[in-house]
Give the backbone structure.
Amino acid sequence: MHKDLLAHDPGRWIPKLEAMLPRGQVVTTASEVERLSKDFYWYSPVLERQLRDKRGDAAVRARNVGDVREVLSFASREGVPVTVRGAGTGNYGQCIPLRGGILLDLGELDRVLAITGDGCAVCEPGARLGVVESTARKAGWELRCYPSTYQKASVGGFLAGGSGGIGSITHGVLRDNGTVRRIRLMTVEEEPREVVLEGGDVLRALHAWGTTGVMVEVTVALAPRVDWAQLAASFPTFDGCLGFAEAVANGDGWRKRLVSAFEWPIPAWFTPLVKWVPKGEALAFFEVAQDQLGALEREVAEAGGVVAFVSPYHEPRRGAQLSDYTWNHTTLWAKKADPTLTYLQAGFDPVRVREQIASLKERFGDELLMHMEYLKSGGVVVPGALPVVRFTSEARLQDMIDHCGRIGVGIANPHINHLEGSGRWRPDDAKLVAKGEYDPRGLLNPGKMAGYTPGRVAA
Ligand SMILES: Cc1cc2nc3c(=O)[nH]c(=O)nc-3n(C[C@H](O)[C@H](O)[C@H](O)COP(=O)(O)OP(=O)(O)OC[C@H]3O[C@@H](n4cnc5c(N)ncnc54)[C@H](O)[C@@H]3O)c2cc1C
């Protein structure tokens, strides 16, 4: 990144921006710019220290695609950095501007434009995933996968910053199975272009943290709607809990959306639920098809577990769901109980998972508590995990990460604030090439694609 290409004199360009856009669309109030500059980066004590003083200089509330075009053209002419914001629920500082500039808030571009007859949702980027889910369900469909933040998170933010979640145990993560059908992406040039990405090309923008273009419309494939039931079961040991969760996750007969398992004392931190969990026991959560609930209850009992809680799946916005305790919400409950806790994002080996957990426990004991989220990735059922970690020092955290590497546990490091280091960089460099084509001056979310130097790729 050539720092000298970027404008650091907001006093020069903010008046021009205000003159260009209707009154009220440019936000310069310090507290509001600060709020819009931040996400859940404080999940990581490392990023909390690195990013707490980072913010944009002004925010623009885009009301339509025309506004996005104007802002991107302005940024290109003036050399001003632009960082896109969906709902700001990212958990590793993805939408925190490192070099100031404009925060482009897409929260008002929030319409679900169509649910097509062949089962796709066509959305503006700021559409809330909860709204997409309810709209799809009314038409007989549902999201294939969504994050536990779905009530608030935007579909554009999910594609650019997330990976998978509830539903991934059946339908895989966002990059699998053609789930992301089409992305209309706007480039950052004096005359911004609209590029349509389809097929494998969607990887140019998926999980690119808004560094390769601004998504102005997305089309995601849906699944036929299922009436779901939610079940929580406690087990005397984590090993028993894991074995049962693993059997459901791998059992092709189960129609399922969620399989999670938690080591004690994590269940103790789910304050509204803890009354149903015997002290010291492990907990598993499932979402299965309503007509399979009876069978699941029987199998829990046969496996030595006790059904702690059963509830129908509620339509979004009609009450709490078990998923509000899963994926990275688990970390949130843990941090509410003890702010010194943090987490890792890990992929265990389906065959060696027990041996790997034993090795981590032997070395780190209760400094690392197991929280598993089963998912399918590339067609394989994987014991994914977001272990809750007691933070003492960066060196100790690195020791855990290094040990994971040595025993074959993959880590997508949520304590690093650039794409390459966070563990999902692809060897084909598709995003690096896309950056050179769609944001040649390196103005989008500068610093997050650490390896990009303007001019080098294009050359
Ligand atoms: C409690 C909690 C639980 C979570 N659970 C999950 C989970 O289950 N699964 C999961 O994958 N993630 C999870 N996350 C992370 C995050 O909530 C999701 O990825 C979410 O979908 C992000 O959406 P957002 O609208 O908040 O994006 P933001 O945080 O606003 O943005 C995320 C990134 O996308 C970029 N971006 C946003 N919109 C666009 C656009 N239109 N074009 C280009 N770039 C854009 C931003 O610049 C930023 O880099 C969790 C986070 C928290 C705090």
